[in-house]
């Protein structure tokens, strides 16, 4: 989102591809099997938001809000 906001389409595309690769690797890991449905849904909506027609209505702000809780949890864990 940051690269797209800065007008750098190439870096935005690369970041998007890395995000998809990370999701694919996470889904392939058997220890995340119980979260497979959630991960595949995330991948679908992410791809729609960044590459397709945004039929799910995602915005940069909705993505920030979605991941804010995860960011906070990671910060709390690091602080321990």
Can you walk me through this structure?
With 80 residues, this protein is an all-alpha fold. The chain has one domain (2-79). The protein contains four helices and no strands. It has helices at residues 2-5, 9-28, 36-51, 60-79. The longest helix is centred in the first third of the chain and has 20 residues, at 9-28. The chain is globular, with a radius of gyration of 14 Å. The model has no long low-confidence stretch (mean pLDDT 92).
**How far is the N terminus from the C terminus?**
30 Å
Shape: globular
Structural class: mainly alpha
Strand residues, percent: under 5%
Radius of gyration, Cα only, in angstroms?
A: 14 Å
Low-confidence stretches: none
Helix count from the secondary structure assignment = 4
List the domain count as a whole number: 1
**Major β-sheet profile:** none
Quick overview:
The protein is mostly helical. It has one domain.
SSE map:
Blueprint: H1 2-5, H2 9-28, H3 36-51, H4 60-79
Helix pairs in contact: 2-3
What structural keywords apply?
single chain; 80 residues; mainly alpha; 4 helices
């Amino acid at each position: 989102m940051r690269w797209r906001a800065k007008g750098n389409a190439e870096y935005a595309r690369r970041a998007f591809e890395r995000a998809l690769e990370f999701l694919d690797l996470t889904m392939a890991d058997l220890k995340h099997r119980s979260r497979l449905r959630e991960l595949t849904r995330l991948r679908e909506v992410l791809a729609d938001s960044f590459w397709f027609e945004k039929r799910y209505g995602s915005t940069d702000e909705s993505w920030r809000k979605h991941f804010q809780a995860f960011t906070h949890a990671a910060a709390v864990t690091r602080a321990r």
